[in-house]
Give the backbone structure.
Amino acid sequence: MAEEVVATFDGPLDGFSITLSINNSSTLAVRTVGVSGRTAKFPVTWDSFGTFSGAPVVHSGTTGLDTEVVLLRFTGFDNGKTVKFTGVDPDFTGDTSSGIRVLDLVGSRATAFFADGTTGFGEFEVTDKNTVRAVITRP
């Protein structure tokens, strides 16, 4: 089995409704997922991460709102589990008046921190399914 976590901003690419789905297909539990908007074409600040769903996984906290890097902490985010955040509200850094489309999140980076202390990294890219996805690979 591949040691990876897949994070996807659902499309359409020109849509302003932002949803983030994260699937853990690694053999280890994921403790934290980080998303950095610093590396997007136009840097992004995370105003809100919306509403969480994904029971039995527990979303145990979020840090970094109103910054370019947000950390999402979990309990029970084991192999085969998927979580979702609907109503994610990013802004262009320094410009809260402009709307962000899914496509604007290309180039953002994602990090997963695993139960054994290892870390995986990925970058959000456009897919042929009209989404923006990062494959976070565990070393």
Observations:
- The chain is about 0% helix and 55% strand.
- The mean pLDDT is 94.
